[in-house]
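Per reviewer request, we include the raw input and output of the structure prediction for the construct analysed in the revised manuscript.
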Amino acid sequence: MSVNYDLYETPNPDRDGKELPLHARVVLKGSYTASEFIDMVTALEHIPHAQLVGSIEAISSTLKHLLLKGFSVELGDIGYFSLSLSVDKKVVEPEDLRSPSVSLKGINLRINRQFKKDIETSLELQRCNSPFRVKNPLDEKKCLQRLNSFFEEHPCINRQDYMRLTGKTKKQALQDINAFIEQGVLQKYGLGRSVVYIKVV
């Protein structure tokens, strides 16, 4: 069974208009809850359900116990668990730092090399088409036609509406909308997530 993926636009933090290389992301087929995962292991490995539940609870409890004592813990062939910390305020000199200013940032999992290699060796990837990736985007004339038809039934439009209407990506939609604003076709109203666009009469 293959793992589906798709390619997505990479946001440009500099916002200078430069297009960055696309990046790949797994298109998830769903997720397993803890209960569903236990049922799967029970079925595949023929381990008594109660025994498996008890073992997982014991592992979880012991893992927390050791992490709270400041240990890094290796869990089977999966990898190592450890704690990471953060400082709640900007400190330059160590003597200025007090314990209450340090808190838990997260719990790290460093995957075992062999576990990663086993996944990598057996991994089969398959590209799937995403509705947010457009191979042949509509030209400006056709987008304007659809926009005018939309305004015949609606007083305003937002970016998400425009994306669905034209099949454009978020970046392409914003480029189109800004171009229509410059041309005097659209006018912007609102701020943040409340932004809408109306047709200039």
